[in-house]
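The passage that follows is intended for readers who have already worked through the single-chain material. We present the inputs for a multi-component assembly, then the predicted structure in tokenized form, and finally a short commentary. You are encouraged to pause after the input and sketch how you expect the pieces to fit together before reading on.
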Amino acid sequence: MPHPQSDLLYNKLMREWKEWEIKLLKYKDFPAGLQRVRPKVKQLFYRGEWKKDLFDKAVAVVGSRKITKYGRMATEMMVRGLTEAGYTIVSGFMYGVDTAAHKTCLENKGRTVAVLGCGLDCLTPAENDSLYTKILENGGLVVSEFTPKQEAKLWTFPYRNRIVAGLSQAVLVIEAGEKSGSLVTARWAFQQKKKVLAVPGMITASLSKGTNWLIKNGAGLARDANDILEELGGIRPLKEKRKGRILPKLRGEEAAVVEWLKREEMDADELSRKLNKSITQINILLSELCLKGVVEESGNKFMLGLEYVD
Amino acid sequence: MLTKVWSVASRGLEALEIEVEVNVAAKGFPGFQIVGLPTKAVEEAKERVRTALVNTGIAFPAKKIVVNLAPADIPKEGSAYDLAMAVGILAAIGEIVLPACAGRPEKKIYFYGEVGLDGRLRHTRGVFLLASLAFEKGVKEIFVPKLSANEASVVKGVKSFPVVSLRQLIRHFQGEKKIRALKNLDKNRLIEAAEVDFDFKEVVGQEQAKRALLIAAAGGHNVLMVGPPGSGKTMLARALPGILPELLEAEALEVTKIYSVTGNIEPGGGLVRRRPFRSPHHTTSRMGLIGGGTKPMPGEISLAHRGVLFLDEFAEYPRTTLEALRQPLEDGVVTVVRVAGAMKFPASFMLVAASNPCPCGWLNHPKKPCICLPGQILNYQKRMSGPILDRIDIHINVPFVEVGKLRQDTPEVKEVHTSGVIRLQVVVARKIQEIRLKNDYIFTNGEMRNKQIKKYCRLSEDAERLLQTAADKFQLSARSYFRVIKISRTIADLERAEGIEYNHVAEALQYRVRS
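Having made your guess, compare it with the prediction:
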């Protein structure tokens, strides 16, 4: 038998979200959108505080479990805009785009709903432990149709996707490969006569194949949050089109580097060739630009910081 | 009749004088016995010595022969006592006369080497160690196999006689035909540049990586290269010996000692003249890498002493193997403790590690999609633990080079850096460091500890400010903070600058550990 105190400590330290009670929502109390979902959702377990207005304005932001730097930037841009316009972000709690969507929403003081593909007392994926707690603490919900102790299986994820679509007015697909679970969500959304939007990507990028396919087959094109808001029928609630922040004053050489990075992300070698400067000079410039926050680094590429992208 | 001759036993990298007493009794049953904790190889010397003597034309005495290897409580290993035993028997039966020494070291003679059945001597490991001990003890003459004698020739003040066969040795002591001792060789003239597989100019693009390796070579810094398959990591590492400076005399002696004991010197070879470059496979056992065994022997990290240890596919090494590198990386020496005793092996090497970014290798690749799951990537990268990464000064990405893109971008006239040109820069920078650090008994910036960093690394005011900003922004650990200073120091040395300036720190920041 485990030591009682260690058990207590485990619950206290490792699983703070477990202190939130699991509650059951009856079919008659479902939001209207969810009642119409077929196959029918019979019950919904949830943790958190159920508020009716949570689903008045809700958008699902979904995408691939793998996420590229582009996908991350797109997620951040879209979710920020939607959150500022007062929308709840619904997503699937998996790693990749889902996690990025939940996190960005929380960073912007928004409310977010996570739809799990397992029982509410299981944690999949395990590294989202602290995210679980944070969602609840910030007025969000964690919901699932599966009874507690139901573990995540391959079939549970596509199945729960119909709830993701059912809880929202529109589904936004950020990144999706050719055979992605996000396409399943999009299909549920089409079936439920919900709006589907997708972020376009390069035709060569494997993780944009699915989204580009969606756009060709009738999904709306999402270039920024405004595109989604427009699609949802609101007159543009945002004050103005969001402009990139004004760059700080840069020296001639620095400006040249930034000019190249505006076009595409590059590694130090490419910059050195493009600008015809020694790698030493490029390294010095990149250090300075990174410290100023104008340039960011990911993988082995350098790119313009998110705030400065128009 | 009883005779005494001397030989040498090695324990790790230390040598020990062994007295070989041979008694050919006038009475008793004929036989041949060796006492003094001989292992199997020593025990078998009986048959080798007996047959060799017979084949040399000596009538082997049909008497009771006892050989004692003293001190008798130390285990004796290997075949190197053959010669001493043979000489002892020859002297005991009056075939040859050894000069009397009466305990005076300058009259002592060391005999060392394995004997073949035909009476010829074979290449035997550890001759350099023997010569060093002879020098220490004041012994003037040593007799060693001709194929190994060159190892001894670099030790001054010791006459080493290259012996081909027992017959030659008998003639020498009978005064018929003397063996000529080897001349002492000038160490500096022996040292030569390493042979290399690639020249730096053959590596296309990868300017960042080349620059990083130049800095690493100049300051003796450890490097980690991460990149997809085929981006040139291995090629770059293999080109590295071409830009490293030649061994210093003192360094060459240290390396020769290790190579001699482990039997890594070719027959006929002498001083190790080239900077070591070791690239063990990733299935190498922990002991193979670190050193060990019941009778501890140096491992790959010691064989890479004063040179380069190249660990390709770094993340494929078992974690325990990599973690074992921690302490040697920090101290430049490894202590191996076994029941037989504790041995210290020098292991001051430059670690060059190469790894893929993920199991499939294509993460961040512009064209090929990576097929790994996020968890797999995390697990793969987790294999290289924080403490190990923290001990590597220079971290670089080696991106995939699209050859078409490269051609299109490259301006017409671009200076091509050959290994020769780069090496010149390295040599100058190392000389500067050698002079600066000579009072601290280290050679390179890579070996500096915090104490020396504080002493020798003065940052200019704006450099200091830049480093502070960077430490906050990039959340540098205390160790990484000092690493950046160390690399800045080397960059400054490459430019022959006295102090560390703004630009040096700014460049060094690009080689920091990315978390």
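Commentary: Chain B is about 35% helix and 15% strand. The mean pLDDT of chain B is 89. How closely did your sketch match?
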